[in-house]
Amino acid sequence: MKLTPDERKMLEGGYGAAKARALDYIIQFGEAFDAERLVDVIYVHYPAEMSIYKGLVEDLLEYAETGATVAVPTTTSTLACDLEQWDRLGCPAPVHDLQAKAVAAHRKMGMACTYTCTPQFLGYVPPKGSYIISVESSAIIYFNSVLGARTNRGGHLTRYSAITGKYPLIGYLLDENRRGTHLIRVKLAPEELRHDCDYSALGFAVGRIVGSQVPIFDFLGTPTQTSLLALGAALATSGSVALFHAPPHTAEAKTVDEAFQGAKPVEVHEITKSSIDAAFQAMTTIAPGDEIDFVTLGCPHYNLEQIRYVAEFFRSTGEKVNPGVRLWICTNRMTKQAAAWEGYTRIIEDAGGFVVCDTCPVESHMRISTCREHGLSVPQIRAMVTDSFKMARYVRDLIGCETAIRDRDSCLKAAISGRMS
Ligand code: F3S
After folding, report:
1. I need a labelling partner for 168 at 20 to 30 A (CA). Which of 42, 53, 89, 308 fits?
2. 363 pocket-lining for ligand 1 (C-beta < 6 Å)
3. According to DSSP H, which parts of 125-183 are helical?
4. Which of 46, 52, 77, 78 to mutate for ligand 1's pocket (most ligand atoms within 8 Å of CB)?
5. 297 C-alpha vs ligand 1 centroid, how far in Å?
6. How far is 49 from 81, CA to CA, in rounded Å?
């Protein structure tokens, strides 16, 4: 692989042993994929969720002791508990204590301890064409598609990219791998794409069809930032999509033809109302009228406006969360601070809900494996209503509960009544 004089200096220890070792790993990885050179990354989103596994935390603590520090702005993905209200939320002390150790190591290495799946809501908005490395499938697909930044799934190399600011020129960093493969003709009326959960359903339906390919949507109604986020998160859940184009709403291609870079679609699919209905049915196993015990909003983590919406719902209705239901509104700590300043957190908490930071049900102590390790009953949740296909898909497998998908207002009404509408 061709190295620049500065990269050669780093490899030879000119910037310290930790960076030399990290660069060596990156070069070995790149050579395995025939990368001709490295690129400079301007930002890294780091996999803090590894801290639910003891061995990985020990490895992290040891690594932080080497004196390695990040070379570029680096944010952290979700943890397994809310660092401040973990005990109120039922998290065992050992799980929290392990997270606290990970936080100290992340700080020591110079990372911003954001613990979120939506760092873009905190101002980490890499420009179109920039190289970055990210974990968290919903963030990866948003960075690639909506912003037009270039990232692969970071995996274990993320740490070394954060330390060196380098990554091999491979995968989605290359123009040819960003070409569309599947044309998705969306045969839905604008009113059928109203809520974020409608976009989540669309993503879930299409992800199942395209797997890990690059879908091009010819119509998306009038998407918002959060509906594009919901679409991407679901595409990366039922499939393993890391990039989509939806001209003119996404960054890279102005037209559908441009998104195919002159090639023909490998496949063409139509998505109709019945495809969307089938997606809702597939993820809904709770019957209307049945009791529920959990409602999750904030997958991916909510921004300030979404929290304002929930607060306004409770303020205007004067309703309270049913005592038999836990309502989690998941976000990051920085957005919660802003929500507290605006008075939104108080309204939601007075109504009986929780504004939860740093984690979400999927990543939390409620995972079956963690419950078994700490002597907690399984499952921790019996029936969850959510507006996110990603949340529903993963809590089914990892927490073992029944699920239903509804739009945000219906989720809030279910939290109040304690029953599926
Ligand atoms: Fe984020 Fe958890 Fe959903 S990490 S994307 S809220 S499953």
Report:
1. 53
2. yes
3. 137-141, 158-164
4. 78
5. 10
6. 10
Q: Distance between CA atoms of 388 and 167, rounded to whole angstroms? A: 32
52 lines ligand 1 (CB under 6 A): no
CATH of domain 294-417: 3.30.499.10
CB-CB neighbours of 371 under 10 Å: 18
How many CB atoms lie under 10 A from the CB of residue 177? 14
Tokens, residue 335: 């957005």
Q: Ligand 1 atom 2: the closest Cα is on which residue?
A: 360
CATH architecture of the domain with range 5-175: 2-Layer Sandwich (3.30)
Q: Is 81 left (phi over 0), alpha (psi -120 to 50) or beta?
A: beta
CA distances from 233 to 199, 229, 384 (A): 10, 6, 19
Calpha distance 275→82 (Å, rounded): 37
Q: Please tell me if the CB atom of residue 332 comes closer than 6 angstroms to any atom of ligand 1.
A: no
Could you read off the pLDDT of 33-42 as tens digits, one per residue?
999 999 999 9
The pTM of this model reads: 0.97
| Residue ranges covered by each domain of the chain | 5-175, 179-282, 294-417
Q: 138: Cβ below 6 Å to ligand 1?
A: yes
Q: Is 5-175's fold the same as 294-417's?
A: yes
